[in-house]
Amino acid sequence: TAACLSSIADAGALGAFVHNTPEIATDQAAAADVRIKLGDAPDMCGIPLGIKDLFCTKDVPSQAASGILEGFKPQYESTVTSQLFDAGAVMLGKLNMDEFAMGSSNETSVYGNAVNPWRRGNEDTALTPGGSSGGSAAAVAADLCLAATGTDTGGSIRQPAAFVGITGLKPTYGRVSRWGIVAFASSLDQAGPMTKDVRDAAIMLRTMCGHDPKDSTSADIAVPDFEAALTGDIKGKTIGIPKEYRMDGMPAEIEKLWADGTAMLKDAGAIIKDITLPHTKYALPAYYVIAPAEASSNLARYDGVRFGHRAKLAQGDGITEMYEKTRAEGFGPEVQRRVMVGTYVLSAGFYDAYYNRARRVRALIKRDFDEVFADGVDAILTPATPSAAFGLGENMDPIQMYLNDVFTVTVNLAGLPGISVPAGLDAQGLPLGLQLIGRPWEEAELLNVAYALE
Ligand code: GLN
């Protein structure tokens, strides 16, 4: 903890931490020392973590990197963070992210973006750590913490993990309680670990998950010992390679990464099978209807009354002006865009044409996966992202930004577990990741395949 605190103090330029909690960390570390001496040390005891700013942490600023939550200090602790702290984990501080987790580059944060610790060749250009969990990714990659929490609605754990060369796991929907995590798109959001390797992910996941009566979508299902499942033995397992993920214009190095990963699993004794997920091409448009729709509803609560920021009002302003001015000042441009798209697709005249159609597409995407798994596939291998980390400010067009999520959103739409593992470097020395997608609730199996790929 002491070493991490001093690294954090020296790494301000990375913009990874937006709020440091050294007093809490020091107290928690001292308490962990006592537990270790007494021989009562759970898995996470004394492990210094960074916590994504989307998690409510009691009496500690929790702003979801938004201006509208300025000054908000929750009176409660999220289920995930309280489980981690009960198991002895240490909180170093809160981590940067895209505002309300909407983005793929960390550039929509009210705090300004975090920076990727990696550089392209000999260039000085600052690169994105990915998003939305960009601060978590940068902090783990730069050794500012041993691991971090992330959340993933459409790729926000897996894409940043791939961009900085770490491991990121999005569990099955319902595996981890969403209680106390600021909601973006409730039917897609899921928290997970961002760690240095697969073993750490297995250890941290066990403490993060479990049934929570406070989240009605959290599943009452046994939590296995994920670490014990890491044998590396994948002989006879069937790995699906979906042809729809081989996109036009895919960079040759991503193709090669994918082929190398496939060969590695084959060498380890897996059976490689070409599969088809025919509705893949509709996933991104369906996601960018459903996620904004749910976001517009979730974000209606930020009204200048209940939380955080309230605009200064002029003489004669009524409650409508208060709402309008507060929301216009408090939300950044990407969040405003999502709220407008979301209210539009949910409006009476367009609900069937957009929202309902997107929901039907979602069901078809889920069915594609169900059929493949019913056919004996144990895990699916794909690239994690269509490119390596791009330069900050390079990708300013929203549609271009959304295209980054092309390989990751299907997993959220289908509620499946997905993991991104570091798989090599591109020609300019930047990390690239491969994604493995597993059957629902079979994170143990998924982690074991990922372990074989590591
Ligand atoms: N980049 C996607 C979006 O902007 C995913 C974000 C996430 O997973 N939180 O919606």
UniProtKB/TrEMBL annotation:
Enzymatic class: ligase
Residue numbers annotated as active site: K52 (charge relay system), S132 (charge relay system), S156 (acyl-ester intermediate)
Record SUPFAM superfamilies: Amidase signature (AS) enzymes (SSF75304)
GO CC field: glutamyl-tRNA(Gln) amidotransferase complex
Catalytic reactions of this protein: L-glutamyl-tRNA(Gln) + L-glutamine + ATP + H2O = L-glutaminyl-tRNA(Gln) + L-glutamate + ADP + phosphate + H(+)
One GO molecular-function entry: glutaminyl-tRNA synthase (glutamine-hydrolyzing) activity
Keyword Transport (UniProt): no
EC number(s) recorded for this UniProt protein: 6.3.5.7
Gene Ontology biological process: translation
Keywords in alphabetical order: ATP-binding, Ligase, Nucleotide-binding, Protein biosynthesis
Family: Belongs to the amidase family. GatA subfamily.
Function according to Swiss-Prot or TrEMBL: Allows the formation of correctly charged Gln-tRNA(Gln) through the transamidation of misacylated Glu-tRNA(Gln) in organisms which lack glutaminyl-tRNA synthetase. The reaction takes place in the presence of glutamine and ATP through an activated gamma-phospho-Glu-tRNA(Gln).
NCBIfam families: gatA
Subunit structure: Heterotrimer of A, B and C subunits.
Name this protein carries in UniProt: Glutamyl-tRNA(Gln) amidotransferase subunit A
Name of the gene: gatA
